[in-house]
Amino acid sequence: MMRSYGEYYVPMTRPARTLFPNTQRQAEALGKRLKAARLRRRMSAAEMAARALMSRPTLRRLEAGDLTVSAAVLVRVLEVLALDADIDQIADQDELGHRLVDARARRPRRSSVPSLADGL
């Protein structure tokens, strides 16, 4: 999409986002796994793009590990590959989160009402 400023047309692009190195490696590995799954199904990039309702350049970006591709596109690709059940595994085992909740759990406090034992 282009935005007009007088006689000049400026492309509307997304700002570049820098990822942590490990996150970038994970994104690239995901892209490779998606491409390998597509190829195991003997599906061309053009066929995948058509079935997932996206352009071939978008599919290429996803398979290259570009995380600016929307989650909706990723989900559609997983559906076409019959891997959409994998979505249910994302953040399923949140052990750290459960430990944090347990650590913050309120401990029972003593009642501020004096008991009979306090008077003895």
Brief summary:
By secondary structure, the protein is mostly helical.
Give the strand content.
Answer: 5-15%
CATH class annotation of one domain: Mainly Alpha
**Structural class by helix and strand composition:** mainly alpha
Give the CATH H-level superfamily of one domain: lambda repressor-like DNA-binding domains
* Global outline: elongated
Based on CA atoms alone, the radius of gyration comes out at: 25 Å
Helix-strand string: EEHHHHH
Largest sheet: 2 strands, antiparallel
Q: What is the fold named in CATH at topology level of one domain? A: 434 Repressor (Amino-terminal Domain)
Query: Which percent bin holds the helix content?
Result: 40-55%
Spatial order of the strands in the main sheet? 1-2
N→C terminal distance: 81 Å
Instruction: Give the overall pLDDT as a whole number.
Output: 86
CATH architecture of one domain: Orthogonal Bundle
Number of helices: 5
Note poorly predicted spans: none
Total strand segments: 2
Features:
120 residues, mainly alpha, 434 Repressor (Amino-terminal Domain), two-stranded antiparallel ribbon
Structural notes for this entry:
It is a single chain. With 120 residues, the chain is mainly alpha-helical. It has a domain at 19-83: 434 Repressor (Amino-terminal Domain) (Orthogonal Bundle), CATH 1.10.260.40. It contains 5 helices and 2 strands. The chain has helices spanning 21-40, 45-51, 56-63, 71-80, 95-104, and strands spanning 2-5, 8-11. Strands 1-2 form a two-stranded antiparallel ribbon. It starts with a strand and ends in a 16-residue tail after the last helix.
